[in-house]
Amino acid sequence: MRTLLLPLLIWLVLVTSGCNTAMVTASNATAMANRNAAASGNPFRWKTKEAQGGATMYLVLADIPSGPSAADEVLTRDTLAAIAAKEAAEGRAWLGLDAVKPLPNGQELWVLKTEGTEGVAYYVSFAPSPQGGVDIGLSPPRTYVKE
Questions:
Q1: Phi–psi pair at 50, nearest 5 degrees
Q2: Is residue 26 exposed (0-12), middle (13-18) or buried (19+ Cβ within 10 Å)?
Q3: Tell me: the pLDDT tens digits for 84-108?
Q4: Is residue 141 classed as helix, strand or coil in its secondary structure?
Q5: Is the CB of residue 28 less than 8 Å from the CB of residue 20?
Q6: Which of 1, 38, 94, 146 lies at 20 to 30 Å from 32 by C-alpha?
Q7: Are 143 and 119 in contact (CB under 8 A)?
Q8: Same domain, yes or no: 81 and 104
Q9: How many other β-carbons are positioned within 10 Å of the β-carbon of residue 141?
């Protein structure tokens, strides 16, 4: 969460410090945020584009490789059912899973099939359950701009 707030705070400090060009300050904030994201293993990156009256920052998915999930068939089915329920609660149509991207920290990023320019992904983790079986850890949905 801190990694996502950092570019906004940097941008706010730069803008309020008297810098002349919003695009330059947003670009600087974007570069600093992306260095932090890359260092922490975050699979998302910030981009900047000019907008009326200044610049905006938006989130994209970094080009990281897809790979196999640690989940077996049953765990995959249960995870997809949990994601489908969250998507229904968000009012989004369920179009299925597009890719699984294993992350260096042991989590997986499950990227959904979506229409339009909005992408949706979930951080997924698996841990042995004290009651037996496996607990599924599922983040809130992460939205980003598809390129």
A1: -70, 145
A2: buried
A3: 999 999 999 889 999 999 999 999 9
A4: coil
A5: no
A6: 146
A7: yes
A8: yes
A9: 16
Query: The tokens 């698996």 sit on which residue?
Result: 126
Residue 77 phi/psi, 5-degree rounding, is -60, -45
The yes-or-no verdict on residue 53 having pLDDT over 90 is no
- As a whole number, the mean pLDDT across the chain is 86
Q: Cα separation of 36 and 7, whole Å?
A: 10
In the chain, the N- to C-terminal Cα span, in Å, equals 23
Residue 8 has pLDDT above 90, yes or no: no
Which pTM does this prediction carry? Answer: 0.79
Domain limits for position 88: 73-145
Q: Which residues of 35-65 are buried (b: 16+ CB within 10 A; e: fewer)?
A: ebbeeeebbbbbbbeeeeeebebebebeeee
Clarify whether residues 21 and 56 are in a common domain: yes
